[in-house]
Amino acid sequence: MGDSNTWDLVGEQQQRKKSRSPSRASRVDSELLVGVENVAELEALGLGKEQLEEEARRHKKQRSKSPALENIRKTSIHILQKFGAIPKKRDDSVLLFRNIDIPDIPLDAICIRPKEFFEEPKVFSFRDMGREQQKAEVNEKCSYLFRGTSFEQDDHFELPTETGRVPEYDHFCPIHGSRRRLPRNKLVTMQTLMHSVDGDDNEDLSYIYGHDFLAKLVRKKKREMLSGAEKERANKIKRKIMSNLWILSVAFLFLFTAFNGLQNLQTSVNGDLGSDSLVALYLSLAISSLFVPSFMINRLGCKLTFLVAIFVYFLYIIINLRPTYSSMIPASIFCGIAASCIWGAKCTYITEMGIRYASLNFESQTTVIVRFFGYFFMIVHCGQVVGNVVSSYIFTLSYSGTLRGPEDSIYDSCGYQFPKNLSLLSELAESNLARPPQKVYVAVCLAYLACVIISGMIMSMFLNALAKDTRNRKSAQRFNSEIIKLMLKHLINIKFMLLVPLTIFNGLEQAFLVGVYTKAFVGCGLGIWQIGFVMACFGISDAICSLVFGPLIKLFGRMPLFVFGAVVNLLMIVTLMVWPLNAADTQIFYVVAAMWGMADGVWNTQINGFWVALVGRQSLQFAFTKYRFWESLGIAIGFALIRHVTVEVYLLITFFVLLIGMCGFVAIENFDHIVAYWKSLKQHECSEKNLHEDRRSNT
Predict the structure, then answer these.
(1) pLDDT in tens, 432-479
(2) Which of 99, 142, 272, 581 is 20 to 30 A off residue 278, Cα-Cα?
(3) Closest CA to 350 of 258, 251, 261
(4) Residue 640: inside a domain
């Protein structure tokens, strides 16, 4: 049936009627299940159409039980739609009523039709004969609309059953004129009304054929089908896996409470020795991450690798009690190797637990692994907060009798004007950066040493070893050079190399915060005892944003988050380059640290995930290795720059590396378009060249 006149659908009733065109999502049809992966499983588990509808209704009721949660959900969706994060839902309904803007006044009562038409004579042509006939047909078809009584009821007048489209725009025709401005699917016809299935039940069940919902039903049905003994065994193993995850997270919390707190004090307390030791640490971490972790994990297993690495951290903190070049540089090298092993073992351990848990709970392996990593980093990021608070608290207690408030004056030798030669510091800045008494520093190191001991005890007494560790120890292990070969192979991959500058910037910005901001800004302006409190603010912001920005990629996509992190970092860099440091502006120190943590949360979550997306989920170990290598290399370069450039030059280098990295990221996102554009240019050049050669040959 063709598109009839819209006015025929309106009766004498002035009440508005509303109809919605049927969508595929709102139809309860078994044909929609074609192509869904879970159909065979649903049939095998005995889930028919009635069971699906019942589960959908139950799911709908559970979602709408709490009015507060429903209001929060609606408000958040409305806000996201306002900002354009979520596209607004298209309302494909059409209101059916007589337009009050068109009065029922006969046109002949107002308008007088012209009886004569004056046209210039036109040269006769056989081509115009068909056009004139077509125009005549158009006028004849719409002639009933030009009568003054076209909107009045006429029993002897019948509208044409089918109305075709005309190529010309007619202002007087409601079908061929103003109605043409609406999209095709907006026109309401009798056919759409007859097949409309809009109802409350179908609208509530419009999502039952989604893959996620079907997979959830399959998992639920499989869990219900487990017998008593088998179910108890599966629940026991799942509880054991979750307890091991929390044990590992708490052990890492104590370990990195000590390491992060001590690392933030290196450049302020130990000066050039601290920066040189950190260069050695992260350079060894970058190089050893290519081949050492796989050998150690296969040779010792994850649990023994954890314990050996914790022992190396223990020795590193002991050597920090009396730091010298002859002891700190070798200790830092071994600590970097231990760091690469402990991070590699952590990835292996959590991945194996996630795979095992997913098989027991009938879930996707990727979903469970990502969830476990989220739980882990939620706990570990708190170590940045606890370690810094411990150091500042001990320093504050030792300086309690001599502490004084910040002076309301501009420090000419602090901030971006911090000199390379410390003899040029002002007297107040020099007193703020004075090394704390040895007893106080030893007390801080002993507190961190206790945290490392607690971490080792938790690992050794409560953490279970993986089952495959015992199998791997029986076979002879050798160094695996596969990752090194892959690294060399992918050096010619354009996409990977475009992401390298942004990953190096991730290391540079971490090195700046740990090595430059703590010394040239916080330590110089407020004092060494305030470094921990300011860095604790950074840790809180980093932990919260790392958790929040991970799921936000599903709403906003990767590009907005990267742009947000880049804008925040650029603003903070410019702020630090123009800010005349005044110790009385205490809030600015904390705001800069919090904003820097917000941007760092973007880089920590998104760059790592971007490497996984480029390399592929089939090689997670290689993706983590590449990310850890380039990030550690960037941190090592950052600490090396501290010795050779000023703070202002360091900020400029960081600024331009970030711009280059963002250009590389944009190039990766539009890589296919760029390649297609260059190919078209080459083809155009080749065609012009061939055309030019043909012309020359013809002449």
Answers:
(1) 888 888 888 999 999 999 999 999 999 999 999 887 777 766 665 565
(2) 581
(3) 251
(4) yes
